[in-house]
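Backbones bend. We report:
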Amino acid sequence: MLNYVLQADTVVEVDRLTKQFGISQRTIYYDLQQIDDWLEENKLTRTQRIYGKGIYLDSETRRKLQDVTHIDNDWDYRFDQWERIYLIVLHLLVAKANVQTNTLLD
């Protein structure tokens, strides 16, 4: 989500994020809190929010994030229960051979 907001040229509406990621507004706000915490830990400005319009990153934070090459390595994303279920179902549907339970654990 941080990368999505970083790549956006304009303010990103929360509804756009819910559609893009297929999650609820509540989850968006929870994730934004996690992103804001991470930004603060790295001495960057939190996401900016405009009531009724959406969120964005200020120009200095945007510039610093684009310069950071380790952002993907530092972000520890954990799938929620439904995301894990969808991934398992998807794996089972596209598999061309029998799937062993231990391969689903990875």
Summary: Residues 25-41 form the longest helix (17 residues). The chain has a mean pLDDT of 84.
